[in-house]
Amino acid sequence: MVATDIEERRDRLQITMFAGITAGSGGLALQELCKMLGFEGVPVVVLALLSLIGWMVFAVATVRMTRIAKASSTGMVLEDERRDQLRAESLKFGFVGVLAVQCLALVGDQVLGGLTAPALTVSFVATLSIAVGVIAGLGRFVYLNR
Question: pTM value?
Answer without folding.
Answer: 0.70
